[in-house]
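Figure caption, in words: inputs first, then the predicted bound structure.
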Amino acid sequence: MNPIANKKVAIVGAGPGGLILARLLQMAGITVRVYERDLSPTARVQGATLNINEESGLRAIRRAGLMNAFQAAYRPGAEKLMLTDKGANILLADDGGPDLAQQRPEIDRGPLRHLLLDSLFPDTVVWNRRFASLVPNDPGLSLVFQDGTRETADVVVAADGANSRLRSYVTPLRPVYSGVTVVEGTVYEAPTVLPRLHRMLDGGKICALGDEKTIFIVAKGDGSIAYYTGHKLDEQWGQTSGIDFDHPGQVRHWLGQEFSGWHPLWGGLFAQTAAFALRPQYCIPFDQTWDALPNLTLLGDAAHVMPPYAGEGVNMAMQDALELAECLLSDSFPDGRSAIAAYETQMRARTAAAAEETMRFTDIFHSPDAASRLVKFFQAPQEPVASQ
Ligand SMILES: Cc1cc2nc3c(=O)[nH]c(=O)nc-3n(C[C@H](O)[C@H](O)[C@H](O)COP(=O)(O)OP(=O)(O)OC[C@H]3O[C@@H](n4cnc5c(N)ncnc54)[C@H](O)[C@@H]3O)c2cc1C
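Bound structure (flavin-adenine dinucleotide present):
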């Protein structure tokens, strides 16, 4: 018998990691609930397009029996990437090619969430449940939500993302500031309001580089453009800058100064953005470790947040879900603690390597010679990227 047979599993967070875990456990007949702080599936704009890798994300989707739904929802052609300098001169245009299209298909975050939600039994996700604290409740755990409600479970999985509130119940180790802060924005109806940039994107992505800064711009299937800028700033910049992110005009003004001398195409993005999100980027310590608990574990960004510059986050979250499901459903572990320990040991080793690679690319993207180093990398991805 597996360690969670006849037990109740609670997952906190309805992101890609939490939802695919719920699906995999339900397929094996396990009772699962997912508690999500969003008010409803459509309450929040879902961010940019995600590349799904064959050996990780797609493997989990396949095992969850969702390949047909994925094939109906992914966006062929969205893997196209253009690198430009700050003057919008094209340095490299990578159309992906047939192999890349097969191995790293792109899907918008909203359709990915919908297809995962559609795969679950009705009412699996309990919306408007913001996790607040965890209380032992022998033999299980009680989840206390911000609205005062409580739920009990035998096993709890923290899938509550980059700012996980559950992480501290597993480990005191905290992610470390990466040195880069992101400002995120979305422009709706891009074909009308930014026709030139929309045509240039042609359904794909642009990364503009210069002055040790970046702008990643992504065309989405609904006609909007999602983008995020990257800046080398102090960790506390959000508090010390005096810029109030609830006042978009202040952010626009600051972005105008930061990117002065850059091509007006990029300025058009800022001018058409109604709301901005400030996201200082954190990364796990590469050597993080902790002792496994019998009934609580972490997956996805809650376990191993890192900056987005290697495009691995969602893939690792889904691979975690697959490997955790395999351990919890295996009858070769005598109890929950040993199943969780086996999952966490392999998860930490795999994601430490990804974190090191991600930090290397975070530095390269924001280095003085980012353009030449990245052009060389995209032309010969197997070659080591030149160091400064
Ligand atoms: C700007 C940007 C661009 C990115 N681009 C890429 C990319 O191209 N490719 C890629 O692979 N990755 C990318 N990532 C990373 C990727 O988004 C994450 O790694 C991935 O979403 C992690 O999935 P997750 O399920 O662990 O967490 P999330 O997707 O963050 O989901 C966590 C869920 O938990 C919920 N939640 C949070 N707190 C609570 C609470 N207290 N109570 C209840 N619910 C809660 C949230 O509302 C959310 O629904 C990017 C990230 C950023 C910031």
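The two ends are 55 Å apart (CA to CA).
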